[in-house]
Amino acid sequence: MSSLSAARLRRSIALHLFLTPLALIWLFPLWMMVVFSTMPDNGIFSPGIELLPHGNFIDNFNNLQHDTDFVGAIGISVSVAVTYTFLSVLLTSMAGWALARYQFFGKGAVVAIILGTITLPYAVVLIPQFIMVARDFKLANTWVALIVPPLFNSLGVLFMRQSFSMMPDDLFDAARVEGVKEWRIFLFVALPLARPMLAALAIILFLASWNNYLWPLLINSQPGSMTAPVALGTLIGLTKVSWGGIMAGAVMLTVPMLIVFVLLQRHFIAGIAAGAIK
């Protein structure tokens, strides 16, 4: 073995020795969430520390389903997240394409305004947005209110603007010379080239919608239209808290997303890296 290979092996071992304890520290709360989801409520607060799962997950899930119709709430969350992700990716891609490829009056001001919206805390726009949607448009307790208001994502627009800016101008000029319409250039030339970036953006937007709690809590007050995080929050009452049900619901919300991220992490990392390099 050459000295260079030996040095690389030593660095790799040292890196793994450093990162493995950090990974275990990060995974430990998730593992304890799984353990707590299999324990009765009185067992969660027992003096001893339990590190192995028990056998009460089905009972906790049955209690959760009885109290919240959690399966229906998950169905609503999946439908809202998928619809939101598709529409938001399409909207942010079109906005990013326009800002990257077209010259128009006020373009710099538009980019500055988009950058400025990133600095605004969400609490600043939350109440005006709620008043406009619920009182003025009378869209409370509807899927439109869940999906449409958060559609425009400033970071997504800037991310796609950067992605389209990296593409060669000659490619699009050649398509225009051949008489290809602008919308066909966008759909059949630009978007396929931006596939890794689109995948990364879709993952980010889907997770944001899946974990969104505050806006669905405000805009939807009917039990039949609650998303899964909001339904899970109803288990915290004034006199009773169903901790076993909360842990079981948290496992059902978290584990599928972890699996999806692990399966798609190659596309996520490739998209982020491609959007950051120019």
TrEMBL record:
Membrane topology of the entry: Multi-pass membrane protein
Localisation per UniProt entry? Cell inner membrane; Cell membrane
Pfam families the UniProt entry points to = BPD_transp_1 (PF00528)
The UniProt record lists the ABC transmembrane type-1 domain at: 74-264
Q: Which domain of life is it from?
A: Bacteria
Q: Which UniProt keywords apply?
A: Cell inner membrane, Cell membrane, Membrane, Transmembrane, Transmembrane helix, Transport
SUPFAM superfamilies membership: MetI-like
Residue stretches spanning the membrane: 12-32, 70-97, 109-131, 143-164, 185-208, 241-264
**Subunit comment:** The complex is composed of two ATP-binding proteins (UgpC), two transmembrane proteins (UgpA and UgpE) and a solute-binding protein (UgpB).
Q: Which family does it belong to?
A: Belongs to the binding-protein-dependent transport system permease family.
Q: What does this protein do?
A: Part of the ABC transporter complex UgpBAEC involved in sn-glycerol-3-phosphate (G3P) import. Probably responsible for the translocation of the substrate across the membrane.
**What protein am I looking at?**
sn-glycerol-3-phosphate transport system permease protein UgpE
Phylogenetic placement of the source organism? Bacteria, Pseudomonadati, Pseudomonadota, Alphaproteobacteria, Hyphomicrobiales
Name of the gene this protein is made from? ugpE
